[in-house]
Specification:
- The longest helix has 25 residues.
- The chain is of the alpha/beta class.
- The strands form six sheets. A seven-stranded mixed beta sheet has the order 15-16-17-14-13-18-19, with helices on both faces.
- Bound molecules: NADP nicotinamide-adenine-dinucleotide phosphate.
- NADP nicotinamide-adenine-dinucleotide phosphate binds next to helix 7.
């Protein structure tokens, strides 16, 4: 069995103690183990601050972009090998593994271009000079400089490649070293990808470290110049947010957590309409891609009361065309969930939802698998539920089932659908499909305070639409409330987490000179 090591203080090291075991999601065979017991987490933080930070801060944005470019190229060069690890460990189909690995290289490539466009500056200038008196003699100016600590990146199990890359790219662009910690259960891919990143030779000493397993006592050594960027469950998020050291030292913690994402089928849509077709294909894609293990997957599908039967029939028709089974087979579109625990949680979640809504496709007790032993693997069938009405529901609005599961909920008008959407208490992404401008504007503005991103599907963009579950580096990722309140990506916006915004006030011409040395946003 392979031992997955950690990369700390410039060397690959392994812990000594009871190791966590990683499994093949399809066969349940143990494939690797990882342990961090006894590793020097305080030393790793010091190493990053002492070597990685100064090295990155010395570089211009253009030079940081070159690092991102080399990392993107290295991942592309090892693509096939990385895809196989995603299939093996996380149960991804080849297409799902591509979504993760290509997402990683594309994000590095995007930040490479963005950094190039920021040029030879090393800090950002936020807005224009502000006159603080009657003349321009006393002036104000906001600037953003890289924090001088270490960014601790803790990721969820579902995107071992992309999750690592999206946080790493923004930190490098901002000029901050990082320690990446993937979820242990699917770390095989992240571990190899990190080896590939190091092998590119692009990363200065101390700029990137890797923890494979528990973070140990790392949080006890954080300072106010360090940053934590976390993706995972609300329960773990609450623990990290409330960590004594985090509270005492004012360590910034960015949280990307659970979300009851939704799609709304506009009242004007009907069969044969391109926007309706777009709605159906987005819902089915989000339900099936990565077996529904995406933080951005659609969990609630709002449909006008009198259209529910027709929409449900069309969704069932499309879902019936999917095959669940061995993820390495070309005709299989849905692989297993990533771990035994995820499967147990998803089945329990379906049972919970079924107390409020009727299962009309799939369900917890059904298993039809292709090309694999039906007694093994963490498989869950795609499951569609339908609720009779939206107001009395609790679990459907509040419980995220992290698998191929969604519920259709009837609505009467835009006011009601907004109120029902809000019952999710803050989400990553909503999508609305309609060609009725008034309905779109009312709904989008009503949904906006509760969501980090809204995708507006209409006939005009039906041919070029990007499904809501695909996170784009150009746009912010994150959402309020239940979704954690964090923000990542979004071009330079994602870099802000790693930079300190400082208000300068002084003699106008001095500040103008200082601003001229930075890159104005
Ligand atoms: P999780 O159990 O909360 O674990 C997330 C990460 O936190 C893992 O790396 C885990 O490490 C680590 N962790 C757990 N306890 C910790 C502690 N006390 N101190 C430091 N790190 C700790 O979540 P998950 O099961 O991997 O992910 C599923 C959840 O993530 C879902 O609810 C989903 O909605 C959410 N998610 C959100 C987004 C988003 O962008 N908003 C994206 C993906 C997933 P170990 O694996 O070593 O325990």
């Amino acid at each position: 069995m392979k031992t997955l090591t950690s990369f700390l203080k410039g060397a690959w090291v392994k812990g000594h103690g009871k190791a966590a075991v990683l499994h093949n999601a399809t066969t349940e065979e143990p494939i690797a183990e990882a342990c961090t017991d006894g590793l020097d987490m305080a030393g790793a933080l010091r190493w990053g601050r002492e070597f990685g930070g100064p090295a990155l801060r010395r570089l211009t944005f253009t030079e940081r972009g070159l690092i991102c470019k080399k990392l993107a190229d290295a991942i592309v060069a090892h693509r096939d090998e990385l895809l196989l690890l995603g299939i093996l460990n996380a149960g991804n189909t080849r297409s799902d593994a591509k979504f993760d690995v290509d997402g990683a290289s594309a994000t590095f490539a995007y930040y490479a271009e963005l950094c190039k466009s920021l040029g030879d500056a090393r800090y950002l200038v936020d807005g224009e000079a502000i006159a603080l008196g009657r003349s321009s003699r006393l002036s104000g100016q906001h600037v953003l400089t890289p924090k001088v600590g270490v960014a601790v990146h803790i990721n969820a199990f579902n995107f071992p490649a992309w999750g690592l890359a999206e946080k790493a790219a923004t930190a490098i662009a901002a000029g901050m070293p990082f320690i990446a910690k993937p979820a242990t259960s699917t770390a095989l891919l992240a571990h190899r990808m990190f080896e590939v990143m190091l092998g590119s030779g692009a990363l200065p000493e101390g700029a990137a470290q890797f923890i494979c397993g528990s973070v140990g006592d790392l949080f006890d050594h954080l300072t106010g110049q360090d940053v934590v960027a976390f993706t995972g469950s609300s329960d773990t998020a609450a623990k990290l947010r409330g960590h004594r050291r985090v509270l005492e030292k004012g360590v910034p913690v960015n949280i990307e957590a659970d979300s009851l994402n939704l799609a709304i089928c506009g009242p004007d849509l009907e069969s044969g309409n391109p926007t309706y077709d777009l709605f159906l294909s987005c819902v089915v894609k989000e339900l099936t891609q990565k077996a529904g293990q995406k933080c951005t997957a659609i969990r609630r599908i709002f449909v006008k009361e009198d259209q529910v039967d027709a929409v449900v029939a069309d969704l069932i028709d499309r879902l019936s065309q999917h095959k669940v089974g061995a993820p390495n087979l070309d005709d299989v579109t849905i692989g297993p969930l990533s771990t035994a625990q995820q499967k147990a949680d998803a089945l329990a979640g379906i049972r919970k939802l079924s107390a409020e809504a009727k299962i009309v496709f799939g369900g917890p007790d059904k298993l039809e698998l292709h090309g694999t032993d039906p007694t093994k693997g963490y498989f869950v069938m795609p499951t569609l539920l339908v609720a009779a009405e939206g107001e009395s529901l609790h679990a459907v609005h509040e419980h995220e089932v992290f698998g191929p599961v969604a519920t259709v909920i009837p609505y009467s008008d835009s006011d009601q659908v907004i109120a029902l959407a809000a019952r999710g208490e803050g989400g990553l992404v909503a999508s609305v499909y309609s060609d009725d401008k008034t309905f779109l504007m009312d709904t989008v503005l009503g949904l906006a305070p509760y969501h980090g991103r809204i995708c507006i599907g209409s006939e005009k963009v039906a041919g070029t639409f990007v499904p809501p579950g695909t996170v784009m580096p150009h746009l912010l990722h994150g959402g309020p409330g239940r979704a954690g309140g964090g923000t990542e990506l979004g071009g330079t916006r994602g870099m802000m987490l790693y930079m300190q915004r400082t208000a300068l006030q002084g003699f106008g011409p001095y500040l103008d000179g200082l601003a001229a040395g930075g890159k104005k946003l």
